Amino acid sequence: MTLRSTRRTKVFASWRSVPSLVWQIALGVGVVVAVWALCRLAEMPAERRPGTFFLPTVAHPFQPKETAPAGMVWIPGGEFSMGCEDPRRKPFGGPDSMADARPVHRVSIDGFWIDTTEVTNRQYAEFVEATGYQTVAERTPLAADFPGAPPENLVAGSIVFSPPREKVPLDNHFLWWAYMPGANWRHPSGPNSTLKEHDTHPVVHIAYEDAEAFAAWAGKRLPTEAEWEFAARGGRSGAVYPWGNEFRPDGRWMANTWQGAFPIQNTGADGFTGLAPVARFPANAYGLFDLSGNVWEWCSDWYQPNAYTAAGPTAGGVLRNPTGPLESFDPQEPGQNKRVLRGGSFLCSEQYCARYIVGTRGKGEISSGCSHIGFRCVQTALKDSAAP
Fold first, then answer.
1. Which H helix or E strand runs over 38?
2. What angle is formed at CA 233 by the lines to CA 227 and CA 238, rounded to 5 degrees?
3. How many distinct structural domains can be found in the chain?
């Protein structure tokens, strides 16, 4: 090949590379624009996102005439979008699709009072001292309730988180939970533990009837699932968390959740490796604390995975003051009666559970307490204090 032909070949080859170079530049610009658009979309309020299922929250303007009960704030009620979109593609969204929290649907509820925090050990102790109440975990199980159980297994106790020493598959929760004789609200980690210096921690090892008993004594009740979610959202329609759409805005920890390899070791990067005292993290827009993480909270609704579908359409497409299905059904454990749990706990992480996301749903067998289940109460406003 002559020098001239070689030069001609190089020139033609150089020209042929131009379209490829332009294509690469265009692709790079396209990727940058796409990333920018996704970031803007993530920052956009949910009700303004294209294709969203969430519509703006419309709060009632009514204000109660009565004085606020101690430790409670007024939730105005109104119409809002209830439920959760599939969070798996979101940062910290976890591995679950949260299918039982769909379809997202419109709900209208009346205003009510709600505790600003979860019920604490100190508050529960006052109730027990006044009434002599004994929780389910403190009672010896009856043989009639557990047919076939060996007598030596009928021992009072509760379920305690027991982290394994090495990595385990995350599809079997029995690998990190254990029934511990002597564990109860007074001894949350087992018979040798106490409540010393834990007065302001949320009370745990509370079965559903234990929470109901406290609420009745206090002149209150447990929230419906719709009331709980309306309060947790704080007027933010479709937000991922009670405080907004970023898990850690400006690097700040907003809830007591799990950091590190679950369930082996919690690094405690948020300041706690277990339960935290109530109100140690920022409140939501309604002034409520710990609606994400720390402990699960009982709601009055029976649990069914298809509860939102089964509720069916209503006039105008809005459910008014829903109280949930008439009975419980969990296809994973058909014979167990379960109520809805909300808010997640200190054990939730993006590796497992992730139900610190507002709008997601949990479930709990009503006669069982655990070392991560507590509650807060609500109170219905006086009839003449707010418009219906």
1. helix 3-43
2. 115
3. 1
Q: What is the DSSP letter of 67?
A: P
* Cβ neighbour number for residue 25 with a 10 Å cutoff: 10
The CA distance from 182 to 163, in Å, is 19
Report the alpha-carbon distance of residue 172 to residue 174 in Å, rounded. 5
- Each residue of 272-305: pLDDT tens digit? 999 999 999 999 999 999 999 999 999 999 999 9
List, as one string, the DSSP characters of 138-169.
Answer: GSPPPGGGSTT--GGG---EEEEE---SS---
Residue 305 near residue 333 (C-beta atoms within 8 A): no
**DSSP three-state, residue 122:** helix
Return the closest-CA partner of residue 119 out of 198, 211, 219.
Answer: 211
Q: Is residue 17 part of a domain?
A: no
In a domain, 349, yes or no: yes
Distances (CA, A) of 15 to 7, 12, 191, 385, 388: 12, 5, 81, 80, 76
| Distance, CA of 7 to CA of 347 (rounded, Å) | 68
Using CA atoms, how far apart are residues 166 and 263, in angstroms rounded to an integer?
A: 9
Is 114 inside any structural domain?
yes
- Domain enclosing residue 363, as ranges: 47-388
**Model pTM greater than 0.90?**
no
Yes or no: say if 100 and 305 are a contact pair by the CB < 8 Å rule. Answer: yes
Here the tokens at position 214 are: 């406290």
Contact indicator for 190, 182 with CB cutoff of 8 Å: yes
Give per-residue pLDDT as tens, 180-221: 999 999 999 999 999 999 999 999 999 999 999 999 999 999
3-state secondary structure of 47: helix
Is residue 242 assigned to a domain? yes
Q: What is the DSSP letter of 12?
A: H
CATH of the domain at 202: 3.90.1580.10
In the chain, the N- to C-terminal Cα span, in Å, equals 94
Q: What does the alpha-carbon distance between residue 167 and residue 170 come to, in Å, rounded to a whole number?
A: 9
Summarize pLDDT for 122-140 with one digit per residue, the tens: 999 999 999 999 999 999 9
Q: What is the pLDDT of residue 102?
A: 95
How long, in residues, is the chain?
388
